[in-house]
């Protein structure tokens, strides 16, 4: 009986402990499982608590723990749970010195999965390349306008079509003019009086003769023609207007039989050996262009290179295009250049003795730039460092401070290192103080961090989930308008403008419908047609970005096959699509992220430059 009582007592004690534990668990878990709460609000509720605990833990050397999905939460209790998602916590490396706080080390396997590339910081020569477009025009300084010096009727038109070439002094127009007839009679009469008049009137008669000659000169007659009138002694009511110089007739404003008034422009001649190349230069690139500078350019898709000198830059910026026109003078270019031709130019600004890094190495948020240094060649330890950047010089940035020549910098994959620092709640690009919310969801939970590192590396490998097989260029298909509509969607998404995306998407689908798709392109057609007829049902910009990812896969396939004209740039963001990564196309290499917009506008890397059939 005693034994039975002891057993019953032990059982009762066990039940009390279990019930108590469950009660405590329920009391603890209930607030964290209220799914109506906002995660951002939870982060704010725990921020002060976490910061306070973090400071005390840092001072005491106590081990800290965080959530792999929500590194903003910190706790010193290893048995604690994330109040946002309920996951178990993982240990965080204890903070020490500042250097330890911004360094991270990867094992050999994790380092291989990350697929990083590094190169030394370079001290030396660099250049800035600016690409310009424009067209050829006649040199305005070599244009000659043939005007009517007196009113009358066009009796004969010797040059009756635009494009005719005329020599100097060649007849152009025969003009009937009563006023000219009267002026010639006055000249003949003044000449006769000056020859046989009284001596005391000779000065007056000579003055009258000079006035008559001057009047004819003002009516367009040359001195030779005036002398011929005097010699002939007969007035005529017609005058022949001749070409003052050789050139092409570029404008013809009259036809035979027309009446004209004094000052009317009859014809315009241009010197074909004097041309201008007019280039449109954006505000950001104006510093690279100076008067007197020589610029080399090509015409259309031709291989011939021409050169000319910058003679002027327009005094005002065009309000609509935000450009200024640069005039480049060409002397005796030969017969290969035709006014109106489309032209491209590349201007290089050379800079000597400058410290530079690749553009892909810098993670930029606003005015702040972060790079990652590999501490030892082939080593797995990296250090985050804030740097001050200067000019962009081609595919490199000028470094003003923060680095020294020869330091080994991560040129590809810096985002993956930064993601791991965010997971561990340590200072990173997005969270300079560490422990802040990242704005991304990360789906790994290994206690040693390897799973997170593998996830960052696998995101790059898996970003082509919807990629299609290689396709071939078909010159019979025109895709220009389709690419224009695609870039309109990209512009709307990186600007966070959902209504603009809706309008652009409707245009995109109409251009998809206009393409005469072949059977070989059916996989691409399927991708770019995704969501067709339902764009107005898309609930918000996040869904629009998911749809844009599918469209981008098809457009990238078309671009890689060369269905575009100018060069396009393929960009990649490893953080897009909830950490799975995503690519897109841009018309320039100034990265603007359509998957995050203003939240992370510069997040990503340039993957490739894709020259088109016309580029």
TrEMBL record:
Pfam families: 3HB_CusB, Beta-barrel_RND_2, BSH_CusB, CzcB_C, HMBD. One of its GO terms (molecular function) is metal ion binding. Residues 180-236 form the CusB-like three alpha-helical bundle domain. Keywords: Transport. GO terms for biological process: copper ion export; plasma membrane copper ion transport. Residues 356-416 form the CzcB-like C-terminal circularly permuted SH3-like domain. Residues 65-92 form the Heavy metal binding domain. Residues 35-52 have a biased composition (Basic and acidic residues). GO terms for cellular component: cell envelope; membrane. Residues 144-269 form the CusB-like barrel-sandwich hybrid domain. Residues 33-52, 426-462 are annotated as: Disordered. Gene3D superfamilies: 2.40.30.170, 2.40.420.20. SUPFAM superfamilies: HlyD-like secretion proteins. Residues 274-348 form the CusB-like beta-barrel domain. InterPro entries: 3HB_CusB, Beta-barrel_RND_2, BSH_CusB, CzcB_C, HMBD, MFP_Cation_Efflux, RND_pump_MFP. The keyword Transport applies. Belongs to the membrane fusion protein (MFP) (TC 8.A.1) family. NCBIfam families: RND_mfp. PANTHER family: CATION EFFLUX SYSTEM PROTEIN CUSB, SLR6042 PROTEIN. This is Efflux RND transporter periplasmic adaptor subunit.
